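queue> holo job accepted (zinc ion)
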Amino acid sequence: MEIDLTVLAPFLSSYFVLVALMAGSFINLAADRVPRGESVMRPRSHCRACGRQLNVIDLLPVVGYALRGARCATCKAPIGLAAPLVEATSGGTMLGALVWLGLWPGALVGLALVVLLGAGVIAAGIRD
Ligand SMILES: [Zn+2]
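queue> job finished
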């Protein structure tokens, strides 16, 4: 059976943008931990101020930040604007590549740009 990409394209595009948003989320985590020499795998994401483990709402890229009003839901410590900005940039970059180049090679180019963004953000964190 042949797969019709024109039918699948909207779903695949949404999927790639979602992956890019989650990649943005991981970039934030890595940029926060790598300069401190901490593991990016564990512990699970938590608030730096009160130690509360982040739940699924906190971890929603961009949306979680907006829902929480830019603050930790427990201790009200402010969350920097950098986090949702990196997530939005990551998702936007992927969306832009898909719109500009189509599903292929847009997804590949978008992924490469997101990786570059991640490397740049993490490198900037290490330099500080
Ligand atoms: Zn907190």
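queue> The pocket of zinc ion is lined by residues 47, 49-50, 52, 72, 74-75, 77 (CB under 6 Å).
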